[in-house]
Amino acid sequence: MQDIHLYHSKTKQKERFNPIDPEHVKMYVCGPTVYARPHIGNARPRIVFDVLSRFLRHVYPKLTYVGNVTDVDDKINKASQEQNIDIKTLTSTMLKYFHEDMSALNCLPLDLEVKATDHIPEMIHMIQQLIDKGHAYVAKGHVLFSVPSFPEYGRLSHRTLTEQIEGARVEVEDYKHSAQDFVLWKPSQSPDPYWDSPWGQGRPGWHIECTAMIKKHVGLPFDIHGGGIDLLFPHHENEVAQGCAATGCHDYCNFWMHNGLIHVAKEKMSKSIGNVLYVADLLDDAPGEAIRYAVLSTHYRRPLDWSDETLSLAKQACRKLHLALNAFPVQDSKLMMDEALLDALADDLNTPKAFSLIQGWVKSILNGDSQYHHRLVSACHLLGFGDQDLRQWRPKNPKVTVDDIEAQIALRADAKAAKNYQKADEIRASLLEKGIVIEDTTTQTLWYWQ
RNA sequence: GGCUGGGUGGCAGAAUGGUGAUGCAGCGGCCUGCAAAGCCGUGUAUACCGGUUCGAUUCCGGUCCUAGCCUCCA
Description:
RNA-binding; Rossmann fold; Four Helix Bundle (Hemerythrin (Met), subunit A); 14 helices; alpha/beta; 3 domains; five-stranded parallel sheet
C-alpha cells in the first residue's frame, strides 16, 4: 500500500495518512456559493481535490467524495434583487455553469453534491441540539453559537479567543454575548428566502450547512476536509466547534487540507478589486486541459500568481504532452503506474514534481523512445490529462472559419508545389496573424489555434 | 494593530545539513525551400545580517520585502 503523507493544517506539518476505514475513505470539499459564474479561484480546489480523489481511488478500494453547493446566502439574495432574477433560477443557472466549467477542466463529477436548501431540517435539528447542550443561545430572533462554551475553539486555525478582537475592524452586534459568537440562524422575510423554525421564520447562517450535511452524508469524524485557505478561519473553525459540540465527537476530521489562493498581478483576486478571472473567459484563451495544467503546475498550498504567461506556458506544455501521447499507439489498456510518480503524489500531492517526471518521459518519447509511453498514458489518466483533443480547441469568436483556413492551406499547398515560396509564406503569415499556426510535415500541413 | 504563511536563475517551479530538478525564454547546432514543431549542446539563482555546524539554501534568531486571515470570500 502506498505510503501517503498529507499536510494537515491543524498540526501544520505533513502527516502519514491513515484512513479511519481503509476500505472506505471519505472526503468532503467546500464548494461554491452559486451567485455568479465560477472563477479560477473556485476551480482551484476542484482541480486539486479532483487529482487527490483520483489518486486515492488508485490507492484505496473505495472513496466517497462529497461536496456542497451553497444556494442560500446573502450574496445570492443581493444578486437576485440586483439582476431581478428569481433566486431559484439564479442558483440553478449558476450551478449549471459551474458543472459545465468544471467538466471542461476535466474534473470528474463528485460522488455526491449536496445543496444547503435541501438540508434545512438537518440544520434546524443540529441547531436545536446545540441549544439543548448549552452551546448556543437565542437572542433577538437569532440563534448564536457561544464560542466561550467550546474551549477547543481556535485550535484548528491557531488563534486565541482574544487576540483577534483588538484592532479588528468588526462591529459587534449588541445581541452577541461574546464578540466571537457566530450566527447559526437569523430572522428572514420576503423577498429573502425563509423557512419556519422553532425560533421563527428565518434562514441558516453560513457555517452550519457544511456541518449538518457532513454529519448526514459523510459522518463524523471523517478522513479529509478540503477547501481554500481563506476558509480556515472562521468557516472551518466554526465547523469544528459546531460539529464537535453538537455530536460530542472529539475529532471532526483527520486531515484539513487547504489550497492557496490565486493572485492576479500580485494581489488577491476579488470582486472589489475587479480582477476576477472567470473560467468561461479563460476557456476562450486556452483549452481546459491547459488551465488545469497551469493550476497543477504550482503546488496546491502555495499561492498561484496568474498571468497570461502562466496560461501560455501551460498551453505549450500541454501541447507537447499531447504530441507525446499521440506519438505511439496505446498497446495495453491496463495501467502501468510509475513508482516515482506515485511517490510524488503521495508526498502531499506534489504535482509540480510529477510534471517534471512526466516532462522527462515526454522528451524521451519525442526522441523516438517508446518505452516510456505506457507510463505516460497511465500518468495522464491518473492526473486527468489527455482526454481532450487540443487541435479541436477553438476561441469563441474566431477571426476565420475552418473552411477559410483549409482553403488557404490548400492555396498554400499549390503555391508550394509550384515553388512559389513567397506566396506560400504570405499565406502562412496572414493565417498566423489570425491566430493560426501552421506545421508542415512530410506528408501534410497541420494547423491549430494559437 | 494582532495572527499565519512565503521569499530559489530572465520567467515559472521542485528539492536538499555536503555536486541546486524540470519547463519556458536566450545562445550555438541538427532538421526544414524558409518556418513551425521536434532533437542535441550551453550560460545564469537559494532576499539580507548573525548563530549552530567540519559544512547551511536547508536548522535557529533578527532585518527587509511580500501574501493571507482577523469582514463576504475558493
